[in-house]
Amino acid sequence: MAFTTKLPSQSDFKKVLLERYQEAIARSRKIGHRVSFRVEVDPAAGAQTITPVEEQTVASDEAFPVEDMGKPDAELEAALTAARERGRKRVAEIVAGGDMLSADAFSKLIGTSRVTVNAKRQSGQVLGIDGAKRGFRFPVWQLDKHGRPFGALPALHATLGNNAWAVYRFLVSRHGALDGRTGLRALQQGDDASVLSAAEGMARGDFD
Fold it and tell me: Across residues 11-36, what is the average pLDDT?
């Protein structure tokens, strides 16, 4: 059965991709000839698919011994480990920022309870990113000039796979589809329609 994951979330997809790669190496060593698996990206469906490893039909004289791929595997694992460590450090830096509030502080800011804030986070009405040891953190800049969370946030969450980190990255990054503005700046200027259009393009895998 093929493995499918929605864009833009990538963590599970990368994990399965590595597993399929290692499975292909082990299978090819065992049977002594080529194997394959296929990676497909469907921009219309917003999904990525990895098929199981399959043996390729080859003539017996085309069978070939497989080299020991131990070193490349070790290098790949080291690269992935380093990337994960950089990611953890970056997350820690972001959630420790002065613009990030705890659920208690954010609830007081918008005049509601912590329970309500967490309910709004779960429904995508407010942006709360998981800071692991620090718990969820809420960017203070997600409020409009009236002190209310931007009205486009629920649609942004839905478009970007209900992934809070994807929404965060979209808002703090500049986009060609927004004339070089960040998603946040465009929301501050009241350009919700362009923001949602740009997010839909990202979900489809459009180049920006």
Answer: 74
